[in-house]
Amino acid sequence: MATKNITLEQFEQTVSAEGITLVDFWADWCQPCKRFAPVFEEASETHPDITFAKVDTEAEQELAQQLQITAIPTLMAFRDGILVFSQAGALPAKSLEQLVDGVRELDMDDVRKQIAEHEESHHH
Known about the structure:
Glutaredoxin, 5 strands
C-alpha cells in the first residue's frame, strides 16, 4: 500500500482508525523531507497493514498549527487513535523499521492505562 496525502478533514478519521498509522509532515521546499519521502514510500510497501499518510504542511497549514508542527519532516505514529510517537527529523530506513517494530510491540492496554492515569493525575 503506497503513501497517501491527507487533508485536515481526513486527518481525524485516518489516525483514529484501528491499527497503526504513520504520518509524515513535509513540504516541497524542505530538502530532508525529499530525502525521507522514498524511505517512507518504501516502508509503506514493506508494511501493507500500516497506513502511511503524508501531510503537506504548506497546503495544510491549519492542521500543522493544530498539531504544533514546528520542524519538518515530523513523523507521528498513531495506534488505535492514540499518538504513540512524534519526532522531528528525517529517519534513516533502519530507524523507521525500528519505530514500526516498536509501535507493533506496544501493549495498547498498558498505553491506555497510562493515559487514563495521566489524565486522572491532571484533574486533581
